[in-house]
């Protein structure tokens, strides 16, 4: 216990460096707002940043840390940098189907997907007392099988953090959520059908992230640490909070990966109810996080790498960079650029806030921007209109040093919560 307290005092009393670490950006030809630049500068001042920050072309303002940033650290971790959608990421699988195998009425396919995968979120009002529409009432067998891979470690975490028991965990496994999460049916450049989806650790990940962000802030207040932004509160290696967080965040990342696998199983099953022709899936498949932290070796040293809206792009590694509704998406192969800590962007990146998008655009704008895509065309998804995001072609052009394009996908069906 004495060792723990000594290390806690040593790290927690460290103060941000005046100049901070360098910031290396892959943003040529892509707009970067001033607020995001300031946020990056704040993060770079922390005393445990290793080498430099790496900034992807989809960079934009986030809570605490900037979305589209890669944050390598030694001796500490920033829970708000990982965020509350722990393990959020993408999964894509190529099928042996082609465009001519899809039904003429794509709304039937969209409806089958919506019935197979819970999506959306019930209103957060005191008067609402029904079940969460984004969770299972009766979960299928794939959920049970996935939960068995998670249950024992979750029970161990709950013994330390009992309030995590009362979260949507089992009932959210294999569900989509809302916001920018989606399920899509896409066509590649040769006309093959791909299945793609985007989700994370759902309610339980949110609870874990929220709890440890608050614990980090409490540690900062307790030890009177001066920070440029309170959302940069961190947990120091060698403390109980750090150890508990690393275990919990690792579990939430595992939950997120299995969540996508279960959704993919149910998506494939839904497809088979509409398309009677036999087909194979996972001809090529990718399942990658873009909000997570893990230990990696860079420049000859073990470091914790937090990717907040960034994808691992080691040499030869496949990843997914989605566009927005109505825009292209890409299956990419990493080039293993060491200066980016082997990373690439996680999407196009928002150009404006959700509030601004709703203020600026109309339903007619959204209908026009998503022409040719079977998707929602109502006011509830205007904040996801393609014009609210950066130009995906410019984003891809800015990161030619980081990845090469393997497949270009265009969605024909998109399901959002």
From TrEMBL:
Annotated Mn(2+) 1 binding sites: 85, 181
Basic and acidic residues: bias regions: 1-11
InterPro entries documented for this protein: RtcB, RtcB-like, RtcB-like_sf
Active-site positions on this chain: 346 (gmp-histidine intermediate)
A GO biological-process term: RNA repair
SUPFAM superfamilies reported for this sequence: Hypothetical protein PH1602
Chloroplast in keyword set: no
GO molecular function terms attached to this record: DNA ligase activity; GTP binding; manganese ion binding; RNA ligase (GTP) activity
Hydrolase listed as a keyword: no
Subunit structure comment from the entry: Monomer.
The family this protein is said to belong to: Belongs to the RtcB family.
Protein name per the record: 3'-phosphate/5'-hydroxy nucleic acid ligase
Lineage: Bacteria, Pseudomonadati, Pseudomonadota, Betaproteobacteria, Burkholderiales
């Amino acid at each position: 216990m004495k060792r723990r307290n000594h290390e806690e005092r040593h790290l927690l009393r460290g103060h941000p460096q005046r100049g901070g670490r360098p910031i290396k950006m892959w943003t040529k030809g892509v707009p970067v707002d001033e607020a995001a630049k300031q946020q990056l500068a704040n993060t770079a001042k922390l005393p445990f940043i290793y080498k430099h920050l790496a900034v992807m072309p989809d960079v934009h303002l986030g809570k605490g840390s900037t979305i589209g940033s890669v944050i390598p650290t030694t001796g500490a971790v920033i829970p708000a940098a990982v965020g509350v959608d722990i393990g959020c990421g993408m999964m894509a699988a190529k099928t042996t189907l082609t465009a001519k195998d899809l039904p003429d009425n794509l709304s039937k396919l969209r409806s089958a997907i919506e019935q197979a995968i819970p999506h959306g979120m019930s209103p957060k009002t005191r008067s609402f007392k029904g079940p969460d529409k984004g969770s299972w009432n009766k979960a299928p067998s794939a959920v049970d099988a996935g939960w068995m891979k998670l249950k024992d470690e979750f029970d161990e975490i709950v013994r330390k953090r009992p309030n995590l028991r009362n979260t949507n965990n089992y009932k959210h496994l294999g569900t989509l959520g809302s916001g920018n999460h989606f399920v899509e049916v896409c066509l590649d450049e040769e006309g093959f059908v791909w299945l793609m989806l985007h989700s994370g650790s759902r309610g339980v990940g949110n609870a874990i992230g929220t709890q440890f962000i608050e614990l980090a802030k409490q540690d900062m207040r307790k030890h009177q640490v001066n920070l440029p932004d309170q959302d940069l509160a961190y947990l120091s290696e060698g403390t109980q909070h750090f150890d508990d967080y690393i275990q919990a965040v690792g579990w939430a990342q595992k939950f997120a990966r299995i969540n996508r696998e279960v959704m993919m199983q149910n998506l494939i099953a839904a497809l088979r109810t509409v398309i009677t022709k036999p087909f194979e899936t996972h001809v090529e498949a990718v399942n990658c996080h873009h909000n997570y932290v893990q230990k990696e070796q860079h420049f000859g040293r073990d470091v914790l790498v937090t990717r907040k809206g960034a994808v691992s792009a080691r040499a030869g590694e496949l990843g997914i960079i989605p566009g927005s509704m109505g825009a292209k998406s890409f299956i990419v192969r990493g080039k293993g650029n060491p200066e980016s800590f082997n990373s690439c962007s996680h999407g196009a990146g928002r150009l404006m806030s959700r509030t601004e998008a709703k203020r600026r655009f109309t339903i007619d704008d959204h209908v026009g921007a998503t022409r040719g895509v079977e998707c929602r065309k109502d006011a509830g998804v205007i904040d996801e209109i393609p014009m609210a995001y950066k130009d995906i072609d410019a984003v891809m052009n800015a990161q030619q040093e980081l990845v090469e394009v393997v497949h270009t996908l265009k969605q024909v069906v998109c399901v959002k919560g």
